[in-house]
Amino acid sequence: MEDTVNTYGFMLVKNEADIIAQTLASLRRYGGFKHIFVFDNGSTDDTLAIARGFIGPDLSVASLPTPFSDNLKFETVYQHRHLMQDGDWFAILDADEVYAEPLQPVLNAAAREGANFVECQSAQFYFTDAEENYGFDPATPAIQQRRHYLVNYGEPRVFRYASGTTLTADAVKQRAPGLTKASRQFLIHHFQFRSDQQTQKRIDIRRQNNQHSNNWGHINSDQWRDYLVPHQHLHRYDGEIRYGLPANANLYKIKDNAAYTMANLKWLQRHGHLTPTQQGFMSAGLLKRIIHKVW
Q: For labelling alongside 140, which of 21, 42, 98, 181 has CA 20 to 30 A away?
């Protein structure tokens, strides 16, 4: 039965010309998709042209000028429901999320345990104070240019299609009744911070999207330099992904930064990636946190 199940990918993209080729190549390598649908949401750079270079039997590209909303990705999925049958899978794809391991074994395991959605675990690569420069070469693998990361986030990314169900962004966020999470996740490398110019454009787009979406509360500054993270608070990629925080990470002393938001820390806590001392920070009251921060 598993051999007859198809997986479809749906990507909504805007102004990701520097990374989209690497992402699409990774999806073909690791995704096992029957077809990938790419929708350009009004790019003003070369994103659309680069994506069109990947057009083939397993990938199509279209322009989609509809204003962005949280639910737009799911709308693109169900516009193609005539292609899917019960038991198929569909994946929500982001242009800056590079697949890092085969997806199909994870989906097969999810199906065997009766799950109907799978979460990613995201190794998020950050700008740091130790960068040689803040440029980005699209021809060089991103992981060779941005080396510092934490696995500190994940969200539902792949869903099992059911003809009687229409998922929405809100239903997924609220884990609506009927959604059953797979016990196993799959790894992606998230390169949201690639160059100074790209990051500034990203911030500007996300700020604009806040007019149509409540999904960008973590974008809280207008300046790209405010998203730099001290390198000692991150792992440095050495060929293997490490989980949890660096051994010297003292949550009472670390200042707020892009990698240590409360949402990130809660994700780490839920997935068992904090030490007992770090767990203590999460349960500490405000006064205790202030005392430990000072002393």
A: 42
